[in-house]
């Protein structure tokens, strides 16, 4: 868990977390949100209009962009997701960009665990768990390492001064503590 003293010293108010599916973005965002008292936004919930017990509907690019801009224009936020091209404004406005560079084996375990607990109804998810979706998650995870990661790093090049690449929350804690010394 993020140490309270380190957060008080640095106190970034706008944090963008990016990484592959299963990397731990949502969990990290929730922990940081609670610790720093910052609202957090899942990009998947900006892309999709969630329909209870039904098929989610993809928001139009205009609606999606308006929802993102509303979050980015606020004074404090944590934004997390795998998307990068259409979220350039959040990278520009962020005080800190965290890239979760989680090993593929750990992502695979997390993807299977999420599928299992949500399929069994032990945890509520944002989408219906199916074997097709499970397969897509694994495909996206492997594709991320082979292609997307390099594209994201190139896209983030102008923001290197505020980019922190970590494998987990403990590494982020150390980074934040060291940056305040």
Structure description:
The structure is a single chain. This protein is α/β, with parallel strands linked by helices and 181 residues long. The chain has a single domain, classed as 3-Layer(aba) Sandwich (Rossmann fold), CATH 3.40.50.300. The protein is built from eight helices and seven strands; from the N terminus they run αβαβαββαβαβααβα. The chain has helices at residues 4-10, 25-36, 43-47, 61-73, 88-93, 104-119, 131-155, 169-179, and strands spanning 14-19, 40-42, 48-49, 57-58, 77-81, 96-100, 163-166. The strands form two sheets. It has a five-stranded parallel beta sheet. A two-stranded antiparallel sheet has the order 3-4. The two termini are 20 Å apart.
Concise structural overview:
The chain contains 8 helices and 7 strands. The protein has 181 residues and is α/β, with parallel strands linked by helices.
Shape: globular
Q: CATH topology, which one?
A: Rossmann fold
Helix content: 40-55%
Roughly what is the average pLDDT, rounded to an integer?
88
- Uncertain segments are 1-9
Measured distance between first and last alpha carbons: 20 Å
Q: Which structural category do the helix and sheet elements fall into?
A: alpha/beta
CATH class: Alpha Beta
CATH architecture: 3-Layer(aba) Sandwich
Q: Give the strand content.
A: 5-15%
Secondary-structure element series: HEHEHEEHEHEHHEH
Radius of gyration: 16 Å
Q: How would the blueprint of this fold be written?
A:
Layout lengths: L3 H7 L3 E6 L5 H12 L3 E3 H5 E2 L7 E2 L2 H13 L3 E5 L6 H6 L2 E5 L3 H16 L11 H25 L7 E4 L2 H11 L2
List keywords for this structure.
Rossmann fold; two-stranded antiparallel sheet; 8 helices
